[in-house]
Amino acid sequence: MISYRKAGVSDVPELVRLRLEFINDASRGTKVSGEQNAILRVTNADYFTAGLLDGSLVVFLAEDSETGKIAATSGIMFWRHLPGPAAPDGRKAVIANMYTLAEYRRQGIATELMQLQLEEASTRGVKVINLSATDMGRAVYEKIGFKADENEMVIRL
User: Could you tell me which residues are beta bridge partners of residue 4?
Assistant: First the structure.
């Protein structure tokens, strides 16, 4: 059984580990070098910690209740942009680092994480959410309602 929860600062080491796994998985065979890996461990830990503490980042985790293993993760970053027609109040969000471990894919976990992200954005009054899609994730995002918009996919709530 999979349970879902928001990540806290105590989860940062696992978030960093999953982030680096996602980067390597999405790189299509071009692995991150040892030096880059070391830098990314530090910079991602700093980013996750700061964002979780100031509320500009919310990360949801899907956890296997039987093993305690994190099966999937997804982050949503919030900020204010210059107001414009798409977001008159300037509030925007980006969903990033959506990653499901291979053995947990095709079980609806990513869809559930996306729904949690959309609910979080809605409660914050965000009307525009962007994301960059991998080939593997595109179908999930389209099923939820994201539409291709040049180089990104966008959903308007």
Answer: 62
User: What span, in angstroms and rounded, lies between the C-alpha atoms of 6 and 28?
Assistant: 29
Angle, helices 109-123 vs 135-144, to 10°: value is 60
- Average confidence (pLDDT) per 10 residues, the chain, 157 residues: 97 95 77 85 97 98 95 95 87 92 94 95 92 82 82 72
Q: Characterize 114-151 residue by residue with b for buried, 16 or more Cβ atoms within 10 angstroms of its Cβ, and e for exposed.
A: bebbbebbeeeebbbbbbebeeebeebbeeeebeeeee
pLDDT the model gives residue 155: 80
**CA 59, CA 116: separation in Å to the nearest integer?**
10
Residue-level pLDDT at 34: 83
